[in-house]
Each structure stands twice: as C-alpha cells, then as structure tokens.
Amino acid sequence: MRARSLHKEFPHIGKGVKGAPAVTEVLRTFDLDIRDGEFLALLGPSGCGKSTFLNILAGLESYDSGELLLDGSPVRGVSKNVGVVFQSYALFPWLSVQKNVEVGLKVRSIPSDERHKTSQRILKTVGLENFAHHLPHRLSGGMRQRVAIARSLAYDPEVLVLDEPFAALDAQTREFLQNELLRIWESGARKKTILFVTHSIDEAIFLSDRIAVMTKRPGSVKDLIDVSLPRPRDDDSRASAEFGRIRGQVAQILKEEVEVGDN
Questions:
Q1: CA torsion sign, 79 to 77 to 86 to 97?
Q2: In the chain, how long is the greatest CA-to-CA distance?
Q3: Is the omega angle on the peptide bond into residue 11 within 30 degrees of 0, that is, cis?
Q4: Is residue 204 within 8 Å of residue 233, measured between CB atoms?
Q5: What are the pLDDT digits (tens) for 26-77?
Q6: pTM score, two decimals?
Q7: Residue 131: helix, strand or coil by DSSP?
Q8: How far is Cα 29 from Cα 41, in angstroms, rounded to an integer?
Q9: Which UniProt keywords apply (predicted)?
Q10: Which residues contact 232 (CB under 8 A, 6 or more apart)?
Q11: How far apart are CA 81 and CA 157, in angstroms?
C-alpha cells in the first residue's frame, strides 16, 4: 500500500462563522508506505485524521487529491481486497454467529456449502466454533469483537484495517484479544497486511512491526518508529527494557504535537 500527498477536506454544513474557512482540512500531504504482510499501527492526537485515512483506504471515504495505491491500482471505492473491523461490532442481532460471519460471502454470491465451510474454519481460527449458532446478544463484548474480526477474515482480504477495535473493552479482555489477534495473524500461511488505528501507545508497540505517528490536524505522518521486539510476543515483551524505550520515544513525539497544538 502506498499513499502520496493525500489531501482531504470536509465541508461545513449550514451557516458558519463569518470569515471562518468553509472547510475543515483533515489530511495534508499524507505520505505512507505499508509493506506486504506488515502490521502497522497508526497513532496520533485526537482528531488528527487517523480514522479518516482508514476510511479512505477501506473505500468508505473519497480523497480530494494525491495518490493511494493498493497492489499498484488506485483505491477509489470499496474493495474485496480490504477488510474492515470497527470499534462497534456492527453485527446483525437477528443472525447467528455463523450467519454473521457469512454475510460478506453471501453478498458475493458464494455457494451455501462453501460459505458454511469457510465460516466454520474461520470460527475455529478465532476460537468460537462452539458458539456458531448463538445470537450476538448472548456473547461477551470480546467474543462479539472476535465475530467481527472473523467476518472480515472470511472473504480473505489482502489488507485488514482495524479502527480502535478493542477500545471499549476492559483491560483484561483487551490484552487477551491483542494476543488473539497476533495469534491469528501469525498462524496464516501468508500474513495479511494490517493497519491498526489506536490511541494506546502500549497497544501499538505490542502489536506492530512499525508505528506511524501523525501530526495534529491537518494530519500527516510525522515519524515512523521501528518496533524491534522479537516475535512471538507475550507478557514478557511488555515488561522488557526495549518496550519501555520505545514507549518513551513515541510518548515524546506525541507530547510535542500536543504542545504545538496548544500554542
């Protein structure tokens, strides 16, 4: 994935303050390369455009100028090559877990037998094979988020984008799902490319190969931090000196941006 000089503005709706700009500039000269099979975390101050870029990559938002390429082709709309997981589970409450996982496959007119085989395999991957016929309201928040991840994995996208998927969960469940996400990612025959938006420095370090730190709005990539922690990662990784060093480095970059925004 390659982004070059992306620019995005949102127009103001209704009457604005006299003399104020008619648009809000969200992204400006946004440049980023994500390598095939890489796990990249996107961090930045609130309102800097993290989720906007994710929505653009997912084809849910357009961009005003610049270039965004996936496998050498311009991204201009929703693509079967990109799977999306949001903070809200966005599950259909009247469908079983298995039927929720199969939604995207059904839209693509995949035959019923193939849908069932795929959903059963994916549910086993995320550890929910025994809950296939449950309705979402009978599951915990962490389990529902795993269903959402399974649904995105079911049609085998090349890129998986996740927008703060664990932010609403308690700390224990969040750490469990971080471990589960890494297990799923590392267990594939071919690692998927992952873009993970988060506000948590610790989460970004634990999960990713690199961290892209954004400026305040209008957002651009200020710095790219390599995460040199060996894989597979575990609780000892979080307690390591290298983890602490990277945390301090990222925190300082974010602090500088917040201070710039306050001046």
A1: negative
A2: 61
A3: no
A4: no
A5: 999 999 999 999 999 999 999 999 999 999 999 999 999 999 999 899 998 8
A6: 0.90
A7: helix
A8: 19
A9: ATP-binding, Nucleotide-binding, Transport
A10: 182, 186
A11: 4
Q: What is the CB neighbour count within 10 angstroms for residue 192?
A: 19
* Fold (topology level) of 2-81+159-262: Rossmann fold (3.40.50)
**What gap in Å lies between CA 48 and CA 55, rounded to an integer?**
13
Find out whether 221 and 213 touch, Cβ atoms under 8 Å. yes
pLDDT tens by residue, 160-184 = 999 999 988 899 999 999 999 999 9
Domain ranges for the chain: 2-81+159-262, 91-156
Which secondary structure element, helix H or strand E, spans residue 70, and what is its range?
strand 65-70
In our burial notation (b when 16+ CB lie closer than 10 A, e otherwise), range 94-123 reads: eebbbbbbbbbbeeeebeeeebbebbeebb
